Amino acid sequence: MREIPVYVFTGLLDSGKTSFINDTLRQPDFRMGERIMVISCEEGDEEFETKACVYVEDEEDFNPDLINNCIKKYDPTMIMVEYNGMWQIETLYDAFVDTPGGIYQAIMTVDASTFDMYMRNMRALIIEKFKMADMIVFNRCDDSTPAATYRRSALAVNSRVQVYFERSDGKEFEMEDLLPFDVTKDIIEIEDAEYGIWFVDAQDNPKRYDGKMVQMKTQVRRSNRLPRTGIYPGRKIMTCCADDIAFYAYPCNLAKAKSHTFNLSDFSNVKDGDWVKLLAKVHKRGEYIMLQAVQIEKAAPPKEEVVNF
Q1: Which has the closest alpha carbon to 298: 190, 206, 203, 219?
Q2: Contacts of 205 (CB under 8 A, 6+ apart)
Q3: 23/91 Cα distance (integer angstroms)
């Protein structure tokens, strides 16, 4: 049985999914030699520019029987799915079990003008879509759009995702990558509330920090996977809700560190759970980051022990 590539377009209502699909269908190189079928799980104002279009109103009807019947009727070489942003992701994947369809790419569209409102009120739903997306397109941007912040929010939960921004006229939005700390200073000082931003930016742009010094307050995690001189200094970060709180850290070597408050003749004196003020040099190792501690001191916990983006 030949596999039919499936491209999924997801996002909340009026986020621009139909327009994105139609723009794709208009591309001659994309259409050449393809029989494209669209399965729409939402009813919008704009119609699709293809005759092979199937509309699904109820989530329970989006299942393998439907997929197989549609394939039998239209014999497509490619399937595009406009997926209802309110439906469960499990329904999407289950629908292609025991069918020739295989999901190749998931693209999420986001209306930048309403993103903040949805994140406040439907954060868990947005984060779920972020996690499964291969590409996220923030559309309807203007000069006031905090694109760098939105990009970090997406990368925080899905480091592999590609993030793009475009204006209402479809032109590319030029993103000014504004950070709340100065990366040109001899010592980059990361404030308590900025740790999550720094962690994601360092993950996404390791060359930016390679060889530089950073100073921040972190909590220590010990691990048997590290040598006796190694720790994980990091913070708890909430990406979605309380159930999604996780500890994010880069490995750190204490071998050459100095301290006035720790006796580093025995590195186990830096204990699991300790709060510390850390001065460290950043090193890029391949695609990863590690830290070399220069100074480590005991510190009081921050006012907010959990940070977010």
Answers
A1: 219
A2: none
A3: 26
